[in-house]
Each structure stands twice: as C-alpha cells, then as structure tokens.
Fold these 2 entries.
Entry 1:
Amino acid sequence: MNSIVLTQPRAVVFDMDGLLLDTEVLYREVMAEACSELGHEMAVEFHSHLIGVPKDRGAQILLGHFGPDFPLAVFHERTAAAFAARCENAIPVKKGAYELLRELGRRNIPAAVATSTHREAALDHLQKAGLLNLLATVVTRDDVEHGKPHPESFLTAARRLEVDPSTCWALEDSHNGVRAAHAAGMATIMIPDLLEPTEEISKLCATILPSLMHVLRELAQLTGR
C-alpha cells in the first residue's frame, strides 16, 4: 500500500463492472461460450488479461492469442447477445452498492462512474441496476480518447464534478483500473473481484478492502457517524 492516508472525500469515482455491478463472472461465462462455439477455448488464466481492458485493447489481445483469423465481429456479437439475454430484466449488483451510494448522497458527496464500457451499454446496465439516478455523472469509453490504464477517464470524472482529483476516492477491482486511478492522483481503493492484487498493484492502493460495505464502514469511521 502507498503512503496516502484516507480522508473524507470530496467525491467518489467508481468503476462499473466487477465493482458496482456483479457482471465480470457473467462476461467470463459468455465469452468462454462464444469462443467454444467458434472452435476455441478461453482459459480462465487468459480471460484474466481481458479484465478492466477497453474493447479496442481487448481485441488486440484476442487476436494476439487466437490468431489474426479469429472472427472478432462474430465473437463480439455473440457475447453481447448472450449477456443481454442473461440480464434482460435485471443486472446483478454488488453487495453494498446501493447503501454506499445512498450514504454518499446523504453526505452531499457526489458519485461518478468511470468505465471502459461504451456509453449505450453502460447507461442501460446502470439503469437496469437501479443505480443511474444515484450518480452525478458517468464517464464511458466513448467520452475519452484513452482508455484505462490511462488516467483520462478518472480525470474527466473529477473535472465534471468540479473537484480536484487528489480529493477523490477511486474504487476499482481491476489492475488496469487501479493503475488509471492512481495515475489520476486519486486515493485508490481496490475491492478485488476476479483479480487479486499483485505486489505492484498493492503499492498503488491507499487500501484494499473486501467489499463496498467495508468502504461504507471506512467512510463512517472517518466522521464518527
């Protein structure tokens, strides 16, 4: 862990998949199924390289692994269709997401999302999850030139919220997300999902917590309420 001491934030910027939404396991399942249908095997170890990676970078990783003839367009169509079918009526939400966002609202601490997902899908998923109206702004892959691990998405969120990045907490579950948030100068809290922190990632975090409920407790301890 780095030397940043957590103080009450002026704003909190959340990642989306694997952090607010319990969707990374679903993505892993539908991606593996699509690969199987196309005659390939997606091992869990390989999938880990795609977590927290923007779609354009993910495409490069897929082609590098499966070869230049891998049918990317078909793969993306099948994974999107399968994910949509599984989440047609609702999106699974991480425990503590509603409680933490509502508590931030009660304290007048604005919350934002900084995600590598494209805008249409991100807004749809947050709406279905019942979280969209609890957020002040949503920064998607369509809103920035550079995806994570570049800090642009977090810096854009801070700019929209009109706060200094150094006064923000950033909550992330992926290695690339942690790198991006730390590079933006935010107090970075990792909440591991499918990826455990490495030595490198641990050094970039102000703290590592098991869940959003633990973040809520951390916030309460800072103010004694």
Entry 2:
Amino acid sequence: MPLRDHFRGWLDQEMKWHSFHQAWATYIAEALTTRLPEGFRASPNVQTAIEIDVAAFGGARTPPRAPTDREEPAWQPSGGTLTLPFEVTEPATEVLVHGRRDGSYLAAAIELVSEGNKDRAEAREAFIAKCETYLQQGVGLVIVDLVTTRAANLHDGLLARVSPTAPVWGERLYATAYSPQGKNGAAKLTVWQEPLAIGDALPTMPLWLLHGPCVPVQLEATYEDTFRRLRLPTEGP
C-alpha cells in the first residue's frame, strides 16, 4: 500500500495524524507480540508530551531457543547503512523502586514522529536527547518520520549528538534503526537508513532487543492494517 500524506489534503480531513498515530502504534505493538521471544512483551504508550510509541520490555533474561521444525528461523536484517564509533554511559549507582513490573527493563523502543516533535527547537532537542539516552543504555531504537509539514531531520540531529563524525543525510521522510553494541572503549552504533516517499511502500526495519535477538518491524503490513481497521479510504475523492 503506498504511503499517504497524513498532514495535507483529503486524508488530513478524514482523520488527524494523532488519531492514526495512536492506532498505528497499537497495531505495531500487537504485531510485534507475535514475533517477540519468550520473556519480552510490547505495548503502546502514547503521552501528551514526548511519547514512546511502542516499547518492548524484557523480563527474565532467558537464553534464545533454537527453532523447532514448526518454527520459522530467526529473522535476520540486511547489513546496516553505516557503523559509527559510539560512547556508552558509565555504570551508575542508583536506587530504583519497582511496582508490579519488578524485574522488567526497557529492551527497545519505536518512535513515530509527530509534528510537535519537530516544530520548535526545544521539542526537537527533547526528542533527540531522549533517543540518545536510549542508545547510551543499549536500548534498540526505530524512528519513523512521516511528517511532511516540518523539514527538520531528527535522525541527523541524533547522530550529530552521538558521533560528531557522522555524515549528514538530510532526508525529510525516513525510517531509521539503531543497534548499540559493546562496552565502554569498544562500543559501536550500527544504523539502518531508509528514505521514504509519498506513494512508495514502507520498509521492514530491524528492532534490536537489549539482551535479546533482532525482530522485524513490518511497517507496511501494520500501516495497511491500520487503514483497514479504522475503515479509512485508501484514495481521496
């Protein structure tokens, strides 16, 4: 299904982005649940300020199981677009209070960019700082930017923060994935970059789980499913 412009024209009149955005996050989480290994769960979390749209949490750190005859082999992504030197944070001494999620930890996050993430310098810096924190903690990350009404590239801003030698990409619409690996002194950040365009299909992106394997985020299938389940037309008048 071709990517649509959610911010101008007939689709913006049918349903505002924030409504589609929240539904898409839910269906991405639902689709991920069928692919996550035992010990991991995905849930949407949309907030009024800066949002983690889909989060993957890990529980017991069980070793990965070999697939049985009835199971599909583990999904493997293609090689990354680039690999950069990367500094992770030093270990911290802190006191944590857990409620019913005792023992859980954030393993990965998917960010669906909103207009509010890009419209002011303060909002852009807050989004970039949040994503940088994820990477420094070893959390796998995917960013999807479909916002056609703002020109800022949050991915370029993020790479400039984590690695001053990173090349500027400059795409307005894109999907990116990040895999932070290694320890202090030998850490690296592998990045996958996919340019997007109105009228083109969406890619499948790799989501790397902290203390877990890599799973596919099927943007095209979940995007189409969101249209279907919201009963949105695929073509304007």
